[in-house]
């Protein structure tokens, strides 16, 4: 008998065992390691849960080679994210020593009113992300500056990060240049602009509610003035860096080349190198401080720029709060996050190759009877894949393929499915600490996922809004409605 014939399908109980083990281990990590779970304990939880899945898969007759191939494929799907993550670390370093981020913080403190700061943060991030199609680039550039401004104003970093995430993922979801905005309609079987127009129905109320919440918070929360004094921060920044409007060429250049559809990796690398060049031209004192060399500027420049790109760099001022704002870790600061992503991909790879993820989702489909149930199941499945496969794209691709026929059988047009995929798969990924998106944004902002998740209102509201529209049958498009309209048009 061949190995293929001996292979058995996992039962629902077997499929859930690795998930239960993972949940238990992650819960213990939160209890015993506290805020330090990303330094290794969560990675080991994912590896141990993957090992339990591999043991079950082996007993089902699934060869180690097939499991290994599944792991390699899963990690391979995350490689673009890993490369981008490295380059975001590099960009943060050169933009700091060039004065780009300090200048954004400086003028932000001068212009922005603390009471409307959270509201404006959402709007700015939404506009930048809408223009670039990238939540990651938005968070890594303007997001870092806005977080610095918020901290200088004495605001909770979790709250500010939640506002940044909300705006960035609104743009990522609605921009025609976003990869997920193109992927969702492709999986569902509709076109891009039909998909975007249909998303307006759920996305508009979600972002409006989000803006209202942040506006209310801005007028009601009490800021902690002990975190930093804005005037002191302004003075320290002015004395440390040479401020010039010319520095804004760097972020404008990045936005321009992203809008021109340059791929993220070369775009971020170019912007990182340009930041280093501007540091050499405009910040000679910072260059010498970072390198520790003052008698050879060519050597000093080379060492300082490379240090900013690959390792930790900090500015020593007379204000500890400002020192915290002006510290970066370069590519090296992303290693724990990349370790977490690889571990998550190992877990997802084994679960998928063993057929465990498919078994769970197929079981869900059997019990779906109504339109509301189908949309709710899609939302839940996308969240499930974000939790287990730890990848935003998988959470769109797999449910998209799984549910396409079910939606058609229930007379629902493909844009209903594509919208549900975006309302859940795209926006919830950043709320999960071990997902590629959650791990990345947490690392880039230096704020734990659990700290900003309660304030990422847009990301929380969006999936519920999708379900709400389905439950109350609001603007749910059907093939039969289209035929009815055609018949009425002919009669007229």
Characterize the structure shown:
The protein is mainly alpha-helical. It has 2 domains: about 5-80 and about 335-485, no CATH class; about 90-330, no CATH class. About 75% of the residues lie in helices and about 0% in strands. A two-stranded antiparallel sheet has the order 1-2. Helix 2 (about 10-35) runs antiparallel to helix 3 (about 40-60). The radius of gyration is 24 Å and the shape is globular. Residues about 1-5 have low confidence and may be disordered.
Secondary-structure element series: HHHHHHHHHHHHHHHEHEHHHHHHHHH
How many domain modules? 2
Beta-strand residue percentage = under 5%
Helix/sheet category? mainly alpha
**Which of globular, elongated, flat, extended, rod-shaped describes the shape?**
globular
Helix content: over 70%
Query: Over the alpha carbons, how many angstroms does the gyration radius reach?
Result: 24 Å
Q: List the strand order in the largest sheet.
A: 1-2
Q: State the end-to-end CA separation.
A: 67 Å
Number of strands: 2
- Overall mean pLDDT score? 89
Largest sheet: 2 strands, antiparallel
Low-confidence stretches: 1-5
Counted by DSSP, the helix tally is 25
List keywords for this structure.
25 helices, 492 residues, single chain, globular, disordered N terminus, 2 domains, 2 strands
Helix and strand topology:
Blueprint: H1 3-6, H2 12-33, H3 41-59, H4 64-97, H5 100-111, H6 117-132, H7 135-152, H8 157-174, H9 179-188, H10 192-220, H11 230-240, H12 249-259, H13 264-282, H14 284-291, H15 297-310, E1 313-314, H16 320-325, E2 327-328, H17 335-353, H18 356-366, H19 371-388, H20 392-409, H21 414-428, H22 436-445, H23 449-452, H24 457-471, H25 479-491
Helix pairs in contact: 2-3, 2-18, 3-17, 4-7, 4-13, 4-15, 4-17, 5-7, 5-11, 6-7, 6-8, 6-10, 7-8, 7-22, 8-10, 8-21, 9-20, 9-21, 10-21, 10-24, 12-13, 13-15, 14-15, 17-22, 18-19, 19-20, 19-21, 19-24, 20-21, 21-24
């Amino acid at each position: 008998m061949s190995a293929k014939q001996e292979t058995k399908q996992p039962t629902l109980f077997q499929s859930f065992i690795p998930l239960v083990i993972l949940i238990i281990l992650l819960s213990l990590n939160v209890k015993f390691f506290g805020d330090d779970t990303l330094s290794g304990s969560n990675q080991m939880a994912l590896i141990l849960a993957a090992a339990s899945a591999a043991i079950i898969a082996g007993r089902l007759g699934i060869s180690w080679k097939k499991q290994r191939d599944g792991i390699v494929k899963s990690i391979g799907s995350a490689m673009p994210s890993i490369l981008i993550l490295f380059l975001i670390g590099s960009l943060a370093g050169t933009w700091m020593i060039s004065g780009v981020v300090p200048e954004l913080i400086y003028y932000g403190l001068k212009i922005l009113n603390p009471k409307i700061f959270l509201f404006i943060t959402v709007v700015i991030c939404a506009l930048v992300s809408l223009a670039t199609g990238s939540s990651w680039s938005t968070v890594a550039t303007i997001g870092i500056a806005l977080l610095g401004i918020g901290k200088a104003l004495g605001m909770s970093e979790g709250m500010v990060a939640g506002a940044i995430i909300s705006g960035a993922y609104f743009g990522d979801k609605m921009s025609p240049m976003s990869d997920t905005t193109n992927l969702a309609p492709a999986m569902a079987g509709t076109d891009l602009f039909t998909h975007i127009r249909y998303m307006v129905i759920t996305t508009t109320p979600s972002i409006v509610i989000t803006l209202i919440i942040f506006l209310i918070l801005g007028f009601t929360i009490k800021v902690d003035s002990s975190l930093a004094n804005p005037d002191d921060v302004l003075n320290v920044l002015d004395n440390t860096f040479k401020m010039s409007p010319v520095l804004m060429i760097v972020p404008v250049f990045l936005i321009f080349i992203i809008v021109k559809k340059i791929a993220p990796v070369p775009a971020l690398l170019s912007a990182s190198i340009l930041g280093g060049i501007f540091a050499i031209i405009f910040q000679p004192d910072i260059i010498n401080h970072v390198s520790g060399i003052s008698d050879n500027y060519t050597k000093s420049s080379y060492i300082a720029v490379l240090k900013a790109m690959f390792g930790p760099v900090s500015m020593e001022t007379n204000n500890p709060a400002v020192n915290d704002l002006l510290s970066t870790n370069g590519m090296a600061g992303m290693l724990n996050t990349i370790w977490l992503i690889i571990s998550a991909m190992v877990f997802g790879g084994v679960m998928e190759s063993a057929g465990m993820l498919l078994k769970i989702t197929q079981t869900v489909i059997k019990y779906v009877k109504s339109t509301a149930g189908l949309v709710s199941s899609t939302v839940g499945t996308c969240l499930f894949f974000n939790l287990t496969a730890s990848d935003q794209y998988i959470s769109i691709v797999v449910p998209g393929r799984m549910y396409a026929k079910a939606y058609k059988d229930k007379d629902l047009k493909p844009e209903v499915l594509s919208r549900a995929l975006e309302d859940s798969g795209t926006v919830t990924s950043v709320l999960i600490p071990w997902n590629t998106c959650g791990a990345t944004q947490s690392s880039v902002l230096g704020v734990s996922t659990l700290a900003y998740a309660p304030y990422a209102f847009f990301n929380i509201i969006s999936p519920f809004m999708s379900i709400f529209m389905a439950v109350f049958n609001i603007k749910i498009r059907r093939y039969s409605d289209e035929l009815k309209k055609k018949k009425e048009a002919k009669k007229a």
